[in-house]
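Give me structure tokens for this 374-residue protein.
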Amino acid sequence: MDIDVCLQQAGEFGPAQKRIYYLNGLAARKASPKNNKPRSRVVTEWDLVCLWSYLPKLSQSAYFVGMMFGCWSLGSFAERIGRKKVYFLSIGREWASVMAGWLLQLLCFANLFTWRMIPESPRWLVLKGRVVEAKQLLTWIAKRNGKHLADSTFELKGPGKDLQSRPVSILDLFRGQTICRRTIILSSHWCTVSLVYYALSLSAGDLGGNRYLSFVFSGLVEIPSYVLTIVVLNRWGRRFTNSGSLVAAGVLCLVCAGFVGRGGAELYLVGFSLAGKFAASASFAIAYLYAVELFPTQVRNLGVGVCSLSARIGGIAAPLILLTDKWGAPVPMLVMGTMALVAGSLSSLLPETLNTPLPETLEELDIHSRMTVT
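Here you go.
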């Protein structure tokens, strides 16, 4: 029996999966030490103006450089040693960076108890040939969801021995025509949506009007964006909402370019910028789910890691794109709008994944692609 059928019979998002979901959110929560002492701005303290005015933007780009290397390395490790181990390893590294007081140390220690509560991915277990463990996990999920999967009623199909022993690498994402096309299109989409999202966020206070209110609204606009995404995602499908939201963000950026530098147009500029941030936030949220469903289990974490690496490249470029306003005030918005239109249009070439079985291996992906073409 295929694992997708087993998961449907065990309850796809029942109490067991909800428990794991909330534990994941608890384990991945972020914290930072509070400091109520007044602090001066780095720009004024270090006199980062005139010839040195680019350094604050460059420091923001440097932050994403570290994230980029983390996405690439951890995505590869997750395919080899498992999702669960890498997940807690990354959380441990993040916690280590903020262990500045006894409270955070206590929270970090308590976080370790969720290790036994969060299971390994059953798909990864099947892919690695650990079918017995996968069956035990699926039986536990079915029991928590009020279902029944006796050992005699289902039998999981594991991969061949050659597939179990062959390690995957980033080159596997470019060897087949189908997986190569998906990797390139998704990477360009992630890079562009990250660039637009962070550039609009970083420029929120510089568009005119009250910079503090503009910054607050730039964050608040993401809430209805995510709510609307949840509502329409299973109605309109992944492909249309993913590409359509990025195209909409591109159009709104181009509209903003027409108001930049015009006196008395600050209200319109801020309004269209917030609308663009709304669309970019929706596309960013959908991109994670869409990439997970497009990559087969064999290279899923690696593929999402490459996409996330591409997103960090966009994050690195976002502060630098804002520096192009020296060539003309509308240039940053024109660049963002054009890139979003191109990447969003390319994303429309990807297949729809709503209510379709997820491929387990690269071979299954090629077979399914050929069957779809014929």
